[in-house]
Design goal:
The structure is a single chain. This protein is of the alpha/beta class. It has one domain: 3-Layer(aba) Sandwich (Beta-carbonic Anhydrase, Chain A). It is built from 11 helices and 6 strands. The structure holds zinc ion (ZN). The site of zinc ion has 7 residues, from helix 5. Zinc ion binds next to helix 5.
Length: 243
């Protein structure tokens, strides 16, 4: 706690004077360009990773970067999504999973959770499609590989859940909303983005600049290449450099 209190003082002393204009502007209202949905894990810092400032990311965090399907709960996720789209006019959503995700580890060992953490057990029911897909389609993999696969597949599962929200559905229909699937790697600080055309995770910049880097080898995240994921995200052509 002492560290946090000292941090508050330091923030007031250095950051605030250096960002007076930004803070004044933000006091008039927010206009974040991107909604960022990720895990509550302390090892992820969306603003740090994307080098964005206050006011740029509208962030939702919970265990496992889970989005309960529309109508499944009256939780904060749905209300926050609705607000982001209808009130803030957000047109880009990133769902970002991460390596070594404790929630995904729990999902792969669900039986052990029920007694010790019943609330987590219930929460992970919103990722049941991920668990089932991994169990049925990746039979011969080590625990370590299964965790990586679960992380990758869960981001896609949660995007499917996201698409059940009427406001999301409608904006997608109008072509006014783009959804991106990311994985953040704690070990390296690297981010990989899902390429819905080839069903693999690739470096995000390879999607932004497909024609400008023809010789750059694309580091494919092979383990998620099969089975093809039934996911209708943005196509390569529509991945813009707008953020
Ligand atoms: Zn996590």
């Amino acid at each position: 706690m002492k560290k946090l209190l000292e941090g508050l003082q330091e923030f007031r002393k250095t950051y605030v004077p250096a960002h007076q204009e930004l803070l004044q502007e933000l006091s008039q209202g927010q206009k974040p360009g991107v909604m960022f949905i990720t895990c509550a894990d302390s090892r992820i810092d969306p603003n740090l990773v994307t080098q964005t400032e206050m006011g740029e990311l509208f962030i939702v965090r919970n265990a496992g970067n889970i989005i309960p399907p529309y109508g499944a709960t009256n939780g904060g996720e749905g209300a926050t999504i609705e607000y982001a789209i209808n009130a803030l006019g957000i047109e880009q959503i990133i769902v970002c999973g991460h390596s070594q995700c404790g929630a995904m580890k729990g999902l792969l060992h669900l039986n052990k959770l029920q007694e010790n953490m019943p609330l987590v057990y219930d929460w992970l029911k919103h990722a049941e499609a991920t668990r089932r897909l991994v169990r049925d389609n990746y039979p011969d993999h080590s625990d370590k590989e299964l965790l990586e696969i679960a992380v990758a597949e869960n981001v896609i599962t949660q995007i499917e859940n996201l698409k059940t929200y009427p406001s999301v559905h409608s904006k997608l229909y109008q072509g006014k909303l783009h959804i991106y699937a990311w994985i953040y790697y704690i070990e390296t600080g690297e981010v990989m983005a899902y390429d819905p055309v080839n069903h693999v995770y690739v470096p995000p910049h390879s999607q932004l600049l497909p024609d400008e880097n023809p010789d750059e080898p694309i580091q494919k995240f092979i383990r998620t290449s099969a089975p093809p994921i039934a996911c209708n995200l943005v196509t390569k052509e529509t991945v813009g450099a707008s953020y």
